Amino acid sequence: MNCSCTKWTLLSLAGVTLQLIGLSLFVFGFFPVKPTLSGFSGPESYNAPACDDLVRNRNPSEISRPPDQLRLLYQELSGIPPLFDRLILMVVDGLPAEFVLGKDGKPPRKVFAEAMPYTQSLLASGKAIGYHAKAAPPTVTMPRLKAMVSGAIGGFLDVAFNFNTQAFLDDNLLGQLFGIGWKMVMLGDETWLKLFPGLFTRHDGVSSFFVKDTVEVDKNVSRHLGNEFSRDDWNLLILHYLGLDHVGHVGGRNSVLMAPKLAEMDEIVKMIHTSTIRTQENDQEHTLLMVVSDHGMTENGNHGGSSFEETDSLALFIGLRNHVADYASATQNTAHQVDIAPTLALLLGVPIPKNSVGVMISGTFDLLKDDHQLRALELNSWQLLRLLQAQLSGLSCGSIPCNGVGDSQRSGTSDCNGSIEKMLCCLYMNAAVLHSSWKSKKVSDRPNSWEDYSNAIAAYDKFLKTASEWLSSRATDKPVGMLAFGVAAMLLSCLILSSLVLYMCREVYLVEKERLSHPNKDMRRWLLDETFVIGVILIIVMSMTSSSMVEEEHYIWHFMTSTLFLLLLRKTAQLLPAGSILSEEQSRKCKFQICSISVLVICGRIMRGWHQGGVNWTNLPDISKWLEQAGSDHVKTIQLVSGCLVICFGLYSLSLFESKKIIIVVVGFSFCIPGLLLLLHILKFQDYKHASSSYGATLLAQIIYAVLAITTIGSFVTLPWLMPIRISNMDSNHDINSSSSVPSDIQYKSPWLELRDSLHVIGWAYILCWCVLQLLLQQPINSMPILLLLVEIMASMLYFFYEGQHCTEWVEVSALYFLGMAGHFALGNSNTLATIDVAGAFIGISNHSTLLSGILMFIITYASPILVLISMVVYMSVKSYHFIPQKIDSGHLLKRMLGFPCLVPLGLNSILLTAYTIVLLLMRNHLFVWSVFSPKYLYVCGFTVCIYIGVSVVAATGIYTYSVLAWRKMRQSSNH
Fold this sequence. Notes:
Blueprint: H1 5-30, H2 52-56, H3 60-63, H4 67-78, E1 86-92, H5 98-101, H6 110-115, H7 117-124, E2 128-134, H8 141-150, H9 158-161, H10 173-179, E3 184-189, H11 191-195, E4 202-206, H12 216-222, H13 225-229, E5 236-241, H14 243-251, H15 258-277, E6 287-292, H16 308-311, E7 312-318, H17 327-331, E8 334-336, H18 340-348, H19 370-391, H20 420-443, H21 449-473, H22 480-515, H23 528-543, H24 547-551, H25 554-574, H26 584-608, H27 623-630, H28 632-655, H29 661-684, H30 695-722, H31 744-749, H32 752-777, H33 783-803, H34 809-826, H35 850-861, H36 863-870, H37 872-879, H38 890-922, H39 929-975
Parallel strand pairs: 1-5, 1-6, 2-8, 3-4, 3-5
Antiparallel strand pairs: 2-7, 6-7
Helix pairs in contact: 1-22, 1-38, 19-20, 19-21, 20-21, 22-38, 23-25, 25-26, 25-34, 26-33, 27-28, 28-29, 28-32, 28-33, 29-30, 29-32, 30-32, 30-39, 32-33, 32-37, 32-39, 33-34, 33-37, 34-36, 34-38, 36-39, 37-38, 38-39
């Protein structure tokens, strides 16, 4: 039963490598980029799909015409005169439609309605029509802009590409308008410049990621308006305002800055309407103002998920000149965000983008003649029919002739049942027959033409909505072989890592059995705490199959973590000598254990009540909401108190190191500097509702980063070289629970005490650095949970120290793992993308960097799991007080020291990752696969990265520290 350290390391690396390969294959197989039709819509889009081959075989020179000729060709082929020759697209980032249009038949809240009087007057007078345009998840800017201009629903992983936007090469509205000679100007979010490089005649882009800026980011757009409205050298003007989204990120929907920002947007609408639309009564030039939002926001101001608040985007048309009857008709309309692309394409006289799944918004075409409205519906139907034919091989509507008119022998409509192919063909043919019938009756001026017209409209509408819904919800084909190989690789990895954990437990058991003079025959029976940990893992795995349990996962972790520590307390009580008076040392030990567990349970309960996490119950009262209502002064006070206590607790933990106090003085002073700078940053720059993005705040944050990095890395690198080497007989003053001494041959060759002390100082340096960093980056309301996490780690280490060898090491590491998961949800995180804190990811960054912002966002999101993982360095120091190496074998020593802290997190994560991968595969056709299960899987992948980072830090620290100390001790002992 002896496995060398090299073989153990190679097996661990093999398991991790297999897991990475399997995870990569599964992710890219399950979340592929959605397939699209190649090419761009052209003249063939104005003919029925049966004519595509005829159009492609036409003279290429007829298709590749100059812009002016191509525009005239499109007008001739479409048969619909373009209604507008200018478009102003005003994007108000993050604006929920209910702020402008209300919700559930009720008008918007008074504070919002009063902030936008001009817009409300346009709606009340019928001069504007608003739509609740439902956005598809993920509700982040880049994929939502793609949906608006292309009508296509992107892949789920577009949420990752949102931070590194690439040029958009698929067919889209801007490319079509550019092809007919439109001149375009863009002011605002530079995402447009990255998506459409080279299309804009003029532009002034700003970064969308400095979310602390709520003022200048919009002034940079508005300052150009006067000049642009006085010019006539553009056809499309894009204005992308970011300030409202930033207000949401900083202070939430109810921020004091929200109403002033809405008033500012209202003034922009008024300026545009009065200067470019209301003055166009001569019918010589027609300009359409369209106010849209890319997504909404949650109560906390975040977005990314699929809740109503996040998907409720706005589509407001101003300048259609078809006055609606009443306010309700102007505001209580619904559409989909992908419907914007086909609607604008038909209004502006260009082909519908090739991959659009949208349906024209019928209320915007009321001014058109009857035949033009039916023609628009027909063009929209042909476009969707092409997509259906590309994705349904069995779709063969054989009776559709080249001119698109139904079979002349067919005189009526039929009920549409059967397979999806038959149903869609039937729905289209019904609409085509009714359209043909209306045409023939209108030409012959026969009665009932109006009835046929209404029936044709209804039939087209039914086909379009059915086809669009099917295309939008259809899961893309997944490569079965790739998914199977990925799952198999993860299963094999899980088997390897779990087997290594079991092997470590078996080896430790045999070593302990040899050390005991009278080993208990029942020594390795499963105890209650071990059984409970296994049960928790099984419960978590089973809960993954329920969408509701995934949304409310925090309940499980909080309950199971508290229960596990109570079971450890029960175990401690059972080990007390029955019927005997405790010695002073035993009484002291018992008191420390009971106090430690009590602190853990109390802190856990406070953290449980700090944030009402999850998805469905966020409206329930909690401590954070109560503090928010109390005011920002109370939050700042808690920040300052938490910062001071974190520094004090960290310095106290460092002071427990008894050898060479000068080291503690230097390390402690080094961490006092960033701690004091943090308090200065909180006092001077941080506020709960809005934080400053001034140069001073950025510079101070950068100084804190630099000092923390230098101090932490310096402690890791230099401490093993500065630690005093003991050559005389090792005393065992620190060994409270063991009377055995270190073998004499070990004391000269094995740097055991030096290693123990070095890991203690380095580990607390890691923890203190991480806590100070989190106090800088986290939302101010999360400062107390960071302090409580630190207290829980201190209490856990104290309990594990006094528990000695009575508690199985893999159970202790599992308890820390559970603690990290509970802390993750206690910081306000959930399994939806909307709870990711974007605001803190730009603290201390003067120039936008996707890499740096992404790293900071990762650090904020996974603060608790990484804190627990780096605390494993201290755990190794704590447990080293209780076991003595039996051989002068560095491999055995490192394996015993690093085995459980590294392998148990890897093993637990591999079980959960593999189980949820299988669950996601089984749920691929579930209704909530994209809104619940897929976001959760992204979080699981993020936790996997956390485990790799944490285990790497622990392993590197242990190996490096041991290697340096062993080399120093060997050199020093040889000199003696």
